[in-house]
Each structure stands twice: as structure tokens, then as C-alpha cells.
Amino acid sequence: MIGNNSFQAPFPSFNYEDIGLDVKAKPTIHGNGDVSLDMDLSIKALAGQSINGIPVISNRAYKGQITVQDGQSAVVAGFITISEQGTRDGVPAFAQIPILRRATSSNQLDETQNELLVVVTPHIVRNRERDANAEIWLSPAH
């Protein structure tokens, strides 16, 4: 109800949401060949359920720093999701009677497990042109 006692339906609205894997990494290369990565990782996905017709989006995030050697792999994050779905088939009236339930109905429980590992392997890529210029710059004058 609005102040003048009239009813006005709310205007329908919607939002766009990006779903999927989003990885941001800021590398720092150390003199001994180690690579530090400031990681910001998020995974958004449909959760498989809805509330009042609005889909639920699950959001998982990791933020931290890892240090590995050049070419070495590291597991940054791991996510495990488990979902269960149960179904019952049978004759509606007889499936409610305890003695006849086993003869007239069947139950089925399905469990699904998903696992996601995010593995990063940094590689230091050298710029040959820059390295060549550095050698020329560092070489003594003739």
C-alpha cells in the first residue's frame, strides 16, 4: 500500500551476474628465481536451488599469497561440493500405508560429488630484446 491507499505492483527488475572462475594474480620475481603471487580467486556458480523463483548463486573466494620456484606447480585452492537428491515412486494412496509401502513404492537417493582443484604454475618469460640491450648497456666501451 502506498500513502494514498492505492496498490501499485512493484516494477520487475533483474541483475546480471558473471558466473565462473575469476583469477587475478600479481607476480613478483625474486633474485633467486622464486616467484611470489598475490592471488585473488573467486568461483561463482548456480547453486541448483532458488528462493521465490530467484536463483541462488554460490560464491567462494580465496585471497592470499604463494611463493614457488619458476616452473613449480602449486595447488592454490580446492573446492568440494556434495549434493543429494531423493525420489520416491509409487501408488500415492498405498505408499503411505507402512505395511504396503515396500511393495508399492521405491525410494532412490542420488549423491553427486564434485571436486575442483586450482593449480598454478608460474613461468618466467624473458624478453630477449631487453636482455640483449642490457648486455650491450653493461658491456665496456671499445
Describe the structure.
This protein is α+β, with helices and mostly antiparallel strands and 142 residues long. It has helices at residues 92-95, 98-104, 128-138, and strands at 20-29, 34-51, 54-69, 74-90, 105-120. The strands form two sheets. The chain has a three-stranded antiparallel beta sheet with strand order 1-2-3, with no helix packed on it. It has a two-stranded antiparallel sheet with strand order 4-5. A hairpin with a 2-residue loop joins strand 2 (34-51) and strand 3.
Task: Reconstruct the topology from this structure.
Layout: E1 20-29, E2 34-51, E3 54-69, E4 74-90, H1 92-95, H2 98-104, E5 105-120, H3 128-138
Antiparallel strand pairs: 1-2, 2-3, 4-5
In brief:
The chain is α+β, with helices and mostly antiparallel strands.
Radius of gyration: 29 Å
Distance between the terminal alpha carbons, to the nearest Å? 90 Å
Based on helices, strands and strand pairing, what is the structural class?
alpha+beta
Helix content: 10-25%
Give the tally of β-strands.
Answer: 5
Strand order of the largest sheet: 1-2-3
Sequence of secondary-structure elements: EEEEHHEH
| Amount of beta strand | over 45%
- Which ranges are low-confidence, i.e. pLDDT below 50, for 5 or more consecutive residues? 134-142
Largest sheet: 3 strands, antiparallel
Question: How many helical stretches?
Answer: 3
The gross shape turns out to be flat
